[in-house]
Each structure stands twice: as C-alpha cells, then as structure tokens.
C-alpha cells in the first residue's frame, strides 16, 4: 500500500463506522493521540498500529490549538465590611451571650 499524505479535510471525510480514520502522532488513523498516550499502551500495542497505517497527515492543514483564556472581569471588593469590625464582632457577640447567660442565671437563682 502506498503511503500518502492527506489533508485534514480528506481525513475528516472518513467518519463512518466502517471507514473511520484516526490521526495518532501525525499518522492518519483519527486524532486520538492524547487518548492513546493517556492509557499507557504497551510497545506491542504501539507496534500493532503499523498494521492500520494509512498515511501521514499534511501538518499545514491542521489548525493551531486555541487556548482558552477567561474574560477579564472588573476587580471589586466583595467584602465591603472592614476587617476590624468583624474582629470586634467575633469578640463581642460571644461576650454578650455569656453576659446574658450569667444574668439570666443570677436572676433566676435569686427568685
């Protein structure tokens, strides 16, 4: 079988269950390089790929990968309450609860 060079468009036309091509490491099969490498195939599995080799991909026809960049958002202060007020409340609220408990205890004991 003659080893040819295919454009990405030509490979994309072979998308039926009986005629599905992949592109693995620049070789035409269908682009499954990441999936193939993530599984950690043995050298035997990698050598079996030669049996299904059709040709090489024309690298000029492959679009460059687009990296996702989140949109810029205006920075704003989510916490509008100053930190020192929170610190004071963390100290005063338990103190008020304790004072109320002692006051209730003292009032109910004297009756």
TrEMBL record:
SMART domains cross-referenced by the UniProt entry: Cyt-b5
Record's GO cellular component terms: endoplasmic reticulum; membrane
Compartments where located: Endoplasmic reticulum
GO MF: heme binding; metal ion binding
Entry superkingdom: Eukaryota
Alphabetical list of SUPFAM superfamilies matching this protein: Cytochrome b5-like heme/steroid binding domain (SSF55856)
Transmembrane segments: 84-107
Ranges where the Cytochrome b5 heme-binding domain occurs: 6-58
InterPro entries found in the cross-reference section: Cyt_B5-like_heme/steroid-bd (IPR001199), Cyt_B5-like_heme/steroid_sf (IPR036400), Cytochrome_b5 (IPR050668)
The entry's keywords: Endoplasmic reticulum, Heme, Iron, Membrane, Metal-binding, Transmembrane, Transmembrane helix
Main location, first listed in the record: endoplasmic reticulum
Record bears the keyword Endoplasmic reticulum: yes
Record-stated family: Belongs to the cytochrome b5 family.
Protein name: Cytochrome b5 heme-binding domain-containing protein
């Amino acid at each position: 079988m003659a080893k040819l060079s295919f454009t990405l468009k030509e490979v994309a036309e072979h998308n039926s269950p009986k005629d599905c091509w992949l592109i693995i490491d620049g070789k035409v099969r269908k682009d499954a390089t990441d999936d193939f490498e993530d599984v950690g195939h043995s050298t035997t599995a990698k050598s079996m790929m030669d049996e299904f080799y059709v040709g090489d991909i024309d690298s000029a026809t492959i679009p460059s990968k687009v990296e996702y960049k989140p949109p810029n958002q205006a920075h704003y202060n989510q916490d509008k309450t100053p930190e020192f007020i929170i610190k004071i409340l963390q100290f005063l609220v338990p103190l008020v609860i304790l004072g109320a408990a002692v006051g209730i205890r003292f009032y109910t004991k004297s009756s």
